[in-house]
Amino acid sequence: MNSLNSEAFTVFGQHILWSDMVGNLFGLAALALGWRRSIWTWLVQFLAGLILFGAFFGHLTGSAGKQAVVMVVALYGWWQWQRGQGQGEDGHISVRFATWRERGAMVAAAAAGTVAVALLFKAYPTLSWDPWPDAYIFVGTVVAMYAQARGMVEFWFAWLLVDLVGVPLNFANGYAFSGFVYVIYGALVLWGMRDWWLRSRRTARPVLEGAPA
Q1: Which residues are paired to 14 by β-bridges?
Q2: Helix (H) or strand (E) holding 17
Q3: pTM exceeding 0.85
Q4: Cβ neighbours of 11 (radius 10 Å)
Q5: In whole angstroms, what is the distance from residue 25 CA to residue 127 CA?
Q6: Backbone angles phi, psi at 211, to 5 degrees
């Protein structure tokens, strides 16, 4: 997998690595499939994590560990969507807004997780170059994937919050392709958010007695 860490090409003075490009193209495809509520989004997310894990293993231990967690969450998402298939009006999963209790739990988990992971990164500097923003992105990604697995519209809001830090951080650390991809992520997130939002309203709309379903 060392070849994945070699340079693929250079654009606008930025050196693009194979691992950076391939892993993030898979991630972009996974987000598009998530928008369409296709269960294959989880397989693609798992493969993206596997590719990046192989690229980072033995070289960037912290990054490899983060990809291992992403793969575990992807398997959880696959399991959840397998159980929920057919609940939506078109045979896919149904989507909804989280309850206030669920939102509070996710915000609390994101805050506590970010602090815990950042302190771990600070205790072991080889795990991350930028402990706090790196921890924020990692924990935010896990929370977003969890919300996606549960069919929550808040999944898209979580991705937007990750993008706000992920774009500048990737450019600053030399992962230019990741930075460009995160910009595209932002556009997909807005479209996906609109689609899931409208679907959740249709799902929640009560059917009047005597009216056709």
Answers
A1: 11
A2: strand 14-17
A3: no
A4: 11
A5: 24
A6: -85, 150
Question: What digits encode the pLDDT tens for the residues 132-149?
Answer: 988 998 899 899 999 999
87-105 confidence digits (pLDDT tens): 656 657 889 999 999 999 9
With tokens 């706000």, the residue in question is 164
User: Nearest to residue 93, comparing CAs of 133, 7, 50, 35?
Assistant: 35
Report the alpha-carbon distance of residue 23 to residue 66 in Å, rounded: 13
Burial of 15 (0-12, 13-18, 19+ CB in 10 A): middle
Distance from C-alpha of 157 to C-alpha of 115, rounded to nearest angstrom: 20
Tokens of 34: 């998530």
Q: Which two three-digit tokens encode residue 105?
A: 């739990």
Please give the backbone phi and psi of residue 46, each rounded to the nearest 5 degrees, phi first. Answer: -65, -45
